[in-house]
Amino acid sequence: MSSDVTMQADFSTFINPESITGIISNIDLQWGDFLQPHNEDELLIRKDIPVDKSCFKHSMLVSVAAETQALKHTHDEPTFRLLIDGKATFNGVEYQAGDWLLVPRNYSYNMVTHVGFKALVEFGVQYGSPEVSEVIPL
To answer: What is the pTM of this model?
Structure first.
């Protein structure tokens, strides 16, 4: 028999993407490895992604090939990424499947991947970058 438990997130602690000045990620918050194997008695594990996502209007799935880089660029709005598969390095920090990162508006960053990755990427109403962001082989 299952028991229904109603819980409510404490949204007052969620990160406002419009007010950050640097990249924030689960690594910074010591969120842990969400995709690690479950213990025998753990049938379900849930974790809040503590980001106020009300400014995000557009979601897309992005796949980036191995041995690829996106040169330094910015976006006119915050962007949110949740890596679903693979690994990538953003501004020198490596992220892997299960990691998420929030990039502030107009924050300069680059991306490099040796193995490739797939991610859910969320934007406001735009996507892409104001200047041409070159995505080139390593």
So the answer is: 0.84
Q: Is the dihedral of CA 19, 74, 62, 30 positive or negative?
A: negative
Residues 6+ apart with CB under 8 A from 104: 17, 20, 21, 22, 23, 78
Cα dist. 123→32, 37, 49 in Å? 25, 31, 16
In this structure, which amino acid lies at residue 41?
D
pLDDT tens track for 62-108: 999 999 999 999 998 999 999 999 999 999 999 999 999 999 999 99
